[in-house]
């Protein structure tokens, strides 16, 4: 796999692919940086979009395993997308570390949570809404995921995102498998799919390595990159996971090779930057 680390960031691992994991195309194109958890910097057609920023060493009892991202390298973005209100996706402490000139796009019902942060523009999106960010279009897509923000009652919606420009990228946010995934997009070049978390098991409202591979059959992307793995662990779990940190993405790649062999899978390490070319 060809990737370069985000300046100042320690990659969790340097992945040596199994034979069923294909290497990324070296042709330059869209640039992605996997910052960790559900945080991805997408650079396409001159626009910089950051998803679900989680940029702190710890989140409650959860600790970041590996180095911290270089905030200077990712703070200047055109838009920040929040997929839902859970504290590991809508983290106020992380948002305070970013440039307030960015457009902050949040699910409908969530603006009141961020209104005091001082962003120049806070826009609520309903599923199906589209906004233009420079030369790209961001379209809010459905997700099957609860919206309760502990300890408060459920509010807002959960959503994914399609970034359309010279290529088309689907960011799933957090979701379980749902049948209408086959309506997300007609020509997806890349799917960014969550596959794990900070524990050993996941409830059904999250994708895991197997169900994420099943989602590929519905989404039909050209390529897929697993996210939401290997970044944060509860106390004691690093010892449990030691030596198996890359197991979730490897499992995803193996399942994908069986269930959706036409989709190329690329494993980008935490902190890694990768270019999506045109095959």
N-to-C span: 15 Å
Q: What level of helicity do the residues show?
A: 10-25%
What is the topology, as strand order, of the major beta sheet? 1-18-2-3-4-7-8-9
Order of H and E elements: EEEEEEHEHEHEEEEEEHEEHHEE
Strand content: 25-35%
Mean pLDDT: 83
Number of domains: 1
* Low confidence ranges: 1-28
Q: Helix tally?
A: 6
Instruction: Please give the CATH architecture.
Output: 4-Layer Sandwich
Number of strands: 18
Helix-strand category = alpha/beta
- Classified in CATH, the superfamily is Ribonuclease Z/Hydroxyacylglutathione hydrolase-like
CATH class: Alpha Beta
CATH topology: Metallo-beta-lactamase, Chain A
Biggest pleated sheet: 8 strands, mixed
Concise synopsis of the structure shown:
With 279 residues, the protein is an alpha/beta fold. It has a single domain, classed as 4-Layer Sandwich (Metallo-beta-lactamase, Chain A). Helix content is 15%, strand content 28%.
Structural commentary:
- With 279 residues, this protein is of the alpha/beta class.
- It has a single domain (4-14, 29-270), classed as Ribonuclease Z/Hydroxyacylglutathione hydrolase-like (Metallo-beta-lactamase, Chain A), CATH 3.60.15.10.
- Helices cover 15% and strands 28% of the residues.
- The chain is built from six helices and 18 strands.
- It has an eight-stranded mixed beta sheet, with no helix packed on it. A seven-stranded mixed beta sheet has the order 10-11-12-13-14-15-17, with helices on one face. Strands 5-6-16 form a three-stranded antiparallel beta sheet, with no helix packed on it.
- The longest helix has 13 residues, at 247-259.
- The radius of gyration is 17 Å and the shape is globular.
- The two termini are 15 Å apart.
- 50% of the residues are buried.
């Amino acid at each position: 796999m060809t990737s370069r680390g985000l300046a100042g960031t320690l990659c969790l691992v340097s992945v040596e692919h199994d034979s069923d994991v294909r290497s990324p195309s070296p042709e330059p194109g869209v640039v992605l940086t996997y910052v960790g958890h559900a945080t991805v910097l997408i650079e396409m057609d001159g626009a910089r979009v950051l998803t679900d920023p989680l940029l702190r060493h710890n989140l409650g009892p959860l600790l970041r395993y590996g180095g911290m991202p270089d905030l200077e390298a990712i703070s200047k973005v055109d838009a920040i997308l929040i997929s839902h209100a859970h504290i590991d996706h809508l983290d106020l402490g992380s948002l305070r570390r970013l440039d307030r000139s960015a457009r902050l796009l949040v699910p409908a019902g969530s603006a009141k949570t961020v209104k005091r942060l001082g962003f120049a523009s806070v826009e609520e999106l309903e599923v199906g809404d589209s906004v233009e960010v420079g030369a790209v279009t961001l379209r809010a897509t459905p997700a099957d995921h609860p919206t309760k923000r502990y300890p408060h009652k459920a509010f807002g919606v959960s959503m994914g995102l399609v970034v359309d420009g010279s290529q088309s990228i689907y960011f799933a946010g957090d979701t379980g498998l749902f049948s209408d995934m086959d309506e997300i997009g007609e020509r997806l070049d890349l799917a960014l799919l969550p596959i794990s978390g900070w524990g050993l098991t996941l409830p059904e409202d999250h994708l895991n390595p197997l169900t994420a591979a099943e989602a590929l059959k519905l989404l039909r992307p050209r390529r897929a990159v697993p996210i939401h793995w290997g970044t944060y662990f509860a106390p004691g779990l690093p010892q449990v996971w030691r030596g198996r940190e890359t197991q979730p993405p490897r499992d995803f790649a193996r399942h994908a090779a069986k269930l959706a062999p036409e989709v190329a899978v690329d494993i980008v390490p935490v902190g890694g930057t990768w270019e999506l070319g045109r095959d």
